Predict the 3D structure of the following.
Amino acid sequence: MVYRLLADAAMTAHFGFLAYVTVGGFLTWRWPRLFWPHLAAAAWALGIVLVGWDCPLTRLENWARARGGEAALPPGGFIDHYIEGVVYPRRHAAAAQLAVGVLVVGSWAGLAWRRRRATRTRP
């Protein structure tokens, strides 16, 4: 029971992390000090996608599942199991990754534009 809760907590943290990576840059418009944590989260996500870094949340979830007598996530991990084929078709994975990248960079560009505009309008 405890291991199941831990696996579910890791899964929930994964969803939260992906949501933060995707739209967290827009939070920086309201709270600019969130830029650096968002940059770190986006860099980590990029490292997982491009370099193939191991995700500690996937490792934790798989460990808890194994201790609880459940099967581990498939080789592709969290996204392959919970996102691809559920939220969008597997064949659109590259487009989904590109869309997330565009949102992240767009949110940062919007932050830069807003800050620049704010400094121009100050007396």
Observations:
- The two ends are 61 Å apart (CA to CA).
- The mean pLDDT is 92.
- The chain has one domain: 2-121.
- The CA atoms of residues 65 and 73 lie 9 Å apart.
